[in-house]
Every structure is written in C-alpha cells, then in structure tokens.
Amino acid sequence: MGERWYAVQTKARAEEQVALRLRAVSRLRVFVPKLAVPRRRRNRRITAIEMLFPSYLFVHMTLDPGRWYAVKWTPGVRGIVGTGDVPVPVPDEAIQLLVGRCLAEEIIPWRPVYAVGTHVRITHGPFAGLVGILERPATRQERVRVLLNLLGGCVPVEVEVTDLEQVS
Fold this sequence. Notes:
Layout: E1 4-10, H1 15-24, E2 29-31, E3 34-41, E4 44-51, E5 56-61, H2 65-72, E6 77-80, E7 82-83, E8 86-87, E9 89-90, H3 92-101, E10 107-109, E11 119-122, E12 131-136, E13 143-150, E14 153-160, E15 164-166
Parallel strand pairs: 3-10
Antiparallel strand pairs: 1-5, 1-6, 1-9, 2-5, 3-4, 7-8, 11-12, 11-15, 12-13, 13-14
C-alpha cells in the first residue's frame, strides 16, 4: 500500500507542536492549513493567522503498523481519524486543492464571497450599523460598493470588504 494522506486529531492548539515532532522525529510530510483573516484591533487592521481545521492536521504516510503507532503515540495526538481502529485516508484531490490555495507557509488568504444583491451590514466606520445591498464586488483594493437607503434615496458608498457582515 502506498503513501496516503490521513487526518490526525490533536489536542487543542497543539497542531504546530505535533507537526514539528512528526517532521523531526518521524520524518513525515505534514500539512497544517492556516487561514489569514483580516481583523480590527483598536481601530487598526491586522492579519490574524487561524487554523483552517482547529485541532487537526494532515500526515502523508504508509499505513504500516510502525508508522501508524509512531503517529498515534506522538505527544499531543488524540488519534487518527477513521472508523473504529482503522484510519481512513483523505482523498489526494482534497489536499491538493488546499495546497493549491496556499500562498506561503501553508497559509490560505481569506476571501469573503458576497454575491451582488446580498443584504449586508456595515460594521465599522461612519456608516456602521446601516444595512444595504451589495452593488459591486471587491476590487483589488478590497473595497466594495454598497447601496444605502439614505436621505430618501439610494446612495452608493464604498467600504472595505472586511467592514461587512451578511444579514441573514
């Protein structure tokens, strides 16, 4: 049986430590996808790096008992995802899709997807709290045009895409 990708469950916030151990000690290929999410802190924009799958990572290995137990008994590992006691491989296509979206160091850029015509609420800035309709999708500068019902008519305003949330 050849090498396949397997999902490994880790203890909370131990993904990076487990990945380091598996790479160093067991010499395995490990993939820990992360998401670069824009946030606001004290009116400043920052990019927070979050785990795409918290408490999970992916290991490329053969399923021989030696490898399996080496991974299973690595400190910080809760188990290998599977049915009963048998690990189930993750399709290679799924991993390749994730790897293809990574820019560097296993980080996938966050990209909100709001369709034109979606009702959105502005969360920051002078129009915070107002609800409008998305008129134009994000540009390269990550700005969108939202139609707001102001002064008895529809007024287009441009805001940053990170300043929006979808209204349910």
